[in-house]
Design brief:
The model has no long low-confidence stretch (mean pLDDT 86). The protein is mainly α. It is 56% helix and 8% strand. The two termini are 15 Å apart. A hairpin with a 5-residue loop joins strand 1 and strand 2. It has a two-stranded antiparallel sheet. It has a two-stranded parallel ribbon with strand order 3-4. The chain has a two-stranded parallel sheet with strand order 5-6.
């Protein structure tokens, strides 16, 4: 993404593909240096979160402090914060693990007696189990709608009930969460 002096956004997306050791990173740095030299005053480099600090240091070394200010290096999480700030749509407070556990416990209390198979009263570890399941589903982009679709196709009645219960729990949990917090696991989807 390039933002010119008139504050117009020009989107220039370039993928540099190749095997390890073929010079992709070197080529990216060369192109960035060339764009800055040719007057570009704002670039965004999107990279995996785990190498953002390393890339920031390399940009500073390559460009020097004044020109480094023209390049924003973003991991996906930082990109989300950038978009929120630019759109004047800051997120609510991010949920932490303790709050997540309290919200899940309350969700299970709300659904007590309404679930088909899962029973929060007879299974004290259900809160932890559902939090782990929710995390895995979010990491793998599995939605409650997809759980319901899978349940509709399930032959085994027990599996069908578990999938439907899980989908209902996720929906109620998400509703509770959205009133006061945001889940950092949903940042990319919200952006």
């Amino acid at each position: 993404v390039q933002i010119n002096p008139k504050k117009e956004v020009i989107i220039l997306l370039r993928f540099i593909l190749g095997r390890s050791g073929t010079g992709k990173t070197r080529e990216m740095y060369r192109q960035i240096k060339e764009k800055i030299k040719n007057g570009c005053d704002r670039l965004i480099v999107l990279i995996p979160d785990q190498i953002s600090l390393e890339t920031e240091k390399e940009m500073l070394s390559l460009l020097g402090a004044p020109d480094k200010q023209k390049v924003n290096v973003f991991g996906f999480n930082k990109l989300c914060r950038f978009v929120y700030e630019r759109t004047s749509n800051p997120p609510k407070a991010p949920v932490d693990n303790g709050t997540r556990a309290v919200l899940m416990s309350r969700t299970l209390d709300d659904l007590d007696g309404q679930l088909r198979l899962l029973n929060p009263r007879s299974n004290r570890s259900l809160t932890s189990l559902m939090l782990d399941t929710l995390l895995e589903c979010k990491k793998n982009c599995v939605t409650s709608e997809q759980l319901r679709e899978a349940a509709n196709g399930a032959v085994d009645e027990t599996l069908k009930k578990k999938l439907l219960d899980t989908a209902d729990i996720f929906d109620v949990f998400s509703g509770r969460l959205s009133t006061s917090h945001v889940d950092p696991l949903d940042d990319i989807d919200r952006v």
